[in-house]
Amino acid sequence: MVPDLPLLRMAYLIEHDFAQFYETAAAKAEGEAKKVLTMLAQWERDREELFRKYHDQAFQEYAGMPWGG
Fold first, then answer.
1. What is the pLDDT of residue 4?
2. pLDDT in tens, 14-63
3. C-alpha distances in angstroms, 65 versus 42, 59, 68, 69?
4. Are the CB atoms for 51 and 13 separated by under 8 Å?
5. What is the rounded CA–CA span in Å between residue 40 and residue 11?
6. Is 68 among the domain residues?
7. Total domain count for the chain?
8. For residues 66 and 53, what is the distance between their CA atoms, to the nearest angstrom?
9. What is the pTM of this model?
10. Does some domain include residue 50?
């Protein structure tokens, strides 16, 4: 489980970065492009939340192990 922590953290940070990228691009776009970029940003935010949830859950389990995490 311990090796999963940095991977899960990296996963949610990647999703976070892409969400910011799409949000920035959407702010500069118009019409259909803005709509698509906004949709992609939300998709990335949803994945960011999912990976953060998995990371936090794994971290709590690891921290509660008898050897002190």
1. 86
2. 999 999 999 999 999 999 999 999 999 999 999 999 999 999 999 988 88
3. 35, 10, 6, 6
4. no
5. 16
6. no
7. 1
8. 23
9. 0.83
10. yes
